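It is worth pausing here to work through a concrete case rather than discussing structure prediction in the abstract. The textbook approach is simple: state the sequence, then state the predicted structure, then interpret. We follow exactly that order.
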Amino acid sequence: MPVPVPVRIVADTNTVLSGLLWQGGPPRQIIDRARAGTITLHTSLVLLAELVEDYQRLAVLGAFNHMPILPARQVLDFITASTTEAPRNPA
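Step two, the predicted structure:
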């Protein structure tokens, strides 16, 4: 019987923000599966910095007025706890 290969995903900033902020849809499914441990999210310091910057910019613009939001620090903590740094391309 073949051994299942773990699913590893590098999610872009828009996917992560959408998955954290809105119920339903593929972005939320990715976040839920990462929380459940059925997939592994990979990221980089550049993507994490972009995530925090975009999240804070959207909060300042009032994009989240219709929903309770987490402080950017909590979002970053979740992402860093749920991800590993993407391996560098050896080429």
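Step three, interpretation. The helical segments are 13-21, 25-36, 45-60, 72-82. The mean pLDDT is 76.
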